[in-house]
Specification:
Blueprint (H helix, E strand, L loop, with lengths): L2 H11 L7 H4 L7 E5 L2 E4 L4 E3 L3 H4 L8 H11 L13 H13 L16 H18 L7 E5 L8 H5 L4 H4 L9 E4 L15 H4 L10 H22 L3 E6 L3 E2 L5 E2 L4 H11 L3 E4 L18
Parallel strand pairs: 4-5, 4-6, 6-9
Antiparallel strand pairs: 1-2, 2-3, 7-8
Helix pairs in contact: 10-11
């Protein structure tokens, strides 16, 4: 199709996610035709920095020869086979490599379950958590605790633990009940920590780098989480977190030690911990997985 035909077909047939479609159809869309390194290239040949990494899906850039050659080599063998009752060399080899590098609270993780997107990965984790308690004789542990401002996707379960009235009000009847606890946010919660600002707070650093502020915020939020667990642990399957950095909430950087504190409380009160690393995993925070921090 020529560019004009692509625009016409897009306006006629495509429903874009999180996009006000009436306004979308009032202008010509930016049509990305190809890519190279960290750039996207549109139908007119203009280059743009892929600043959102194709919405967190791209770690290494576009058209990396080693990756593209591996994809072509696999296509010469087979494009897809199911793991339902079958196995395949790539799935086995990748699972072994992931288990060798993935951290765990009491050692390394040793199992991999593949799914196709961030939201569905969370859905699988919810089922695993509830299923674990069911099969160990504690079926009443079927609820979840999440962090305020969380975003985990837009399927039914992931909406439930990342509910936003702005986006999800129409679907309120579909979501399950979730308890939300505060997360340390030095930008929005700075006035709530009760520190003598004249003596303790430097104004030449970003709020998330204020050691005393963040220590006080982390302690306050962990106390509130523990209070919630004291009341609800017997019916809680898991705590769900975006480790180290909450993305869609506004790039909220959690203080050092907060994630460890959450994990320790989960262990102490016998609930599971689900770490959503869709946005923070695979090197984006300086380590292979954010939980390593």
């Amino acid at each position: 199709m020529h560019k004009s035909e692509l625009i016409q077909a897009d306006h006629a047939h495509l429903w874009h996610p999180f996009t006000p479609m009436r306004q979308w159809r009032e202008t010509d869309p930016l049509i990305i035709e190809r890519a190279e390194d960290c750039h996207l290239i549109d139908a007119d040949g203009k280059r743009y920095i892929d600043g959102v990494s194709s919405l967190w899906c791209n770690v290494h850039g576009h058209r990396v020869p080693a990756i593209d050659n591996a994809v072509r080599d696999q296509l010469d063998r087979v494009a897809h086979t199911t793991l339902l009752g079958l196995a395949s060399p790539p799935s086995i080899e990748l699972a072994a490599r992931l288990c060798a590098i993935a951290p765990g609270p009491t050692g390394r993780l040793n199992k991999v379950f593949y799914t196709d997107a961030g939201a569905t990965a969370l859905e699988v984790a919810f089922k695993m958590a509830v299923g674990y308690w069911h099969h160990t004789g504690q079926p009443s542990k079927d609820q979840f605790i999440a962090l305020s401002g969380a975003y985990h996707g837009d399927t039914t379960g992931s909406m439930s633990v990342g509910y936003s009235d702005l986006f999800h009000r129409a679907f309120q009847s579909l979501v399950f009940e979730t308890t939300f606890v505060p997360v340390p946010d030095a930008v929005r919660m700075m006035d709530s920590v009760g520190i003598d600002e004249s003596e303790s707070i430097r104004h030449d650093v970003w709020p998330s780098e204020h050691t005393l502020v963040n220590k006080a915020l982390a302690e306050s939020c962990l106390v509130k989480l523990e209070h919630t667990l004291q009341q609800q642990a017997e019916r809680t399957a898991a705590i769900v977190v975006e480790p180290v950095m909450q993305g869609a909430a506004g790039m909220i950087c959690q203080p050092p030690g907060f994630l460890r504190g959450v994990a320790e409380l989960a262990n102490e009160y016998n609930v599971l911990l689900i770490a959503d690393e869709v946005a923070t995993g695979f090197g984006r925070t300086g380590k292979m997985f954010a939980c390593e921090h």
